[in-house]
User: Fold these one by one.
Assistant:
Number 1:
Amino acid sequence: MPPQFTSNKYDAPETSLAYDAGPNNGPPVVFIHGLGARRQDWTSLLPEFATIRQVFAPDLRGHGDSGRVQGGYRFTQYAEDIVPFLRDVVGEPAALVGHSLGGVIATVIAADHPELVTTAIAVDPPLFSKRHPDDGNPTKYRERFKRAQDLAASDMTEIGLFTMLQKRSPNRPAYVSRALARNLIKLDPDVFTLALDGGKQLDFDPDDLIGRVTCPMLIMRADPENGSAVKEEDAKWAAEKNPLVSHILIEGSAHEIHHSHRDEFVKKVHEFIYVEPDVESPESEAVND
């Protein structure tokens, strides 16, 4: 029988967080979505981990079914919601897997609250933008953020958004357009404001942050030909600065590695967060049989 998941709400100090959780089948792993997405971004992947792990997937503030916080969308402010969530809901040190914005959040928490994190995987995160201040926000990302903000602020219905997205990209699978439309309907348009204002949401120093990570950390890079958010030189710099940091390139992948290269993503995550079973535990032995 496949694992059963439940949907819940957690009252963080500033707002409420919606989250999905699986059965307690092992050490916890928390999946953190990217900017403009929802916890359902991970839904098809959670069963791949839920048989030997307890999985959690929260909606970040301003996203999905979580509460909104006007003007409260700096990257460290997102992390300030997840920290008490880890303490109160997860209840023990967890592996963190974050995509894009979620990868930055995972890194911030690993650096600031090492007691809460066993391993961290940052999936194509915009961690190093401040190392390249002259680059600014790449034009294509600014355009994407602005379009998303305008659509989220519009009075279009979900079906209207779906229809428009399908017409704009007729080769896109319908289920993808449907998910994007639902994301936009449930999104606070303000989440993009700081990103469009010169990247002011990036309220951290990457040099300081990487230097303070004390758990194993993996940076998963998308293919630069497809618009990776992480430059090879930055990934190498991070690994040289902190020996606990490693990095891999997923060749041919898009920024959404967990979708474009799903099987490879699942394999790499399993390998990195693997926990040696307790050989004295009959339950652990049963899992390995």
Note: The chain has twelve helices and eight strands.
Number 2:
Amino acid sequence: MSKEIVFHIGYPKTATSTLQTFFTKLGEMGKINYFGKDYNVKPKKRLNHHFRNLILGENIYNPKHENKEFISSKKNLISDEWYTCSSLKYALETKQNLQAQYFPLRFKNLFSKNIDLKILVTIRNQIEIIYSYFVQIYFRYKNYLKYETFSDFLKSEINKDYNGELNQFYYFDILSQYADCFGWANIYILFFEDIKHDINDYAEEITKILGLTKKDKKNLLSHFNDVNKKKREKTKSGKLRRKTRKNLLGETMVDIYRKYEISPLQKLKPIAKYFYRKIGRKKREKNIRKPNSKERKMIFDEFKNNNIRLADKFNLNKAKMKKYNYI
């Protein structure tokens, strides 16, 4: 009898970390066997790194040899967005170019025939995810990048197809390869935008895919609500602290700006606010400004036909995709 594994492959910038913290809780409660990212464990000791090594190796995965818990009748879940957005980080670390299109066939070759593999993925419209992706790599790898602004990044990468940094965002081309390997009915595609506009439907889909209960769904909704509440509670000063941590004056003004509501230094609020807006963020805000209307259209036009094919082949909700700027 084959065992089922659900492989959650991302995408990055689609509330993946929020899901992974919830999946970790489900694993701790014994609801599922969770083998994905666990933020309570040091990165190199996480089981998802073990699977990365297997994916990049030449071995065939055998659950009896790798981990006896895979034999359990519980749902087995792996979660790691590395497989949909790994090319830049991997290239910088290994000097080799590894694209998202590499993985579907490796997945097929890796897992033995007695494994029923299902792919779970959350996508986000390319206008938003590409910008969010750029902001992330700008702050993490800016010393390695050949471009300094989002405009430069877009002009450099938009027409390179599989050879460029945007290759992973041609959703149909990538997910159809997974479908060819594991069956079209075994690919579950969710919309990131539903988390904001239709969270109940999003939670319902997760519940069905993982075979969870109504109580688990309620807990997932509560989890998202708690995470969003914490995000709202983060002050602007917290963001500024990360951006100006090397500047002593900046640190001082951040502290004033953060505490002005309860501090006798409240009168210094205008000065701190001016520093926050005009000095600390000026250069980086310019470099990571959001795409203008021309750039948004450029991205939309580039990916529209690919998204239409995605909708047709996977029978996705076109009304939602139009509302969410996919098509």
Note: Residues 3-233+290-323 form a domain with the Rossmann fold fold (CATH 3.40.50).
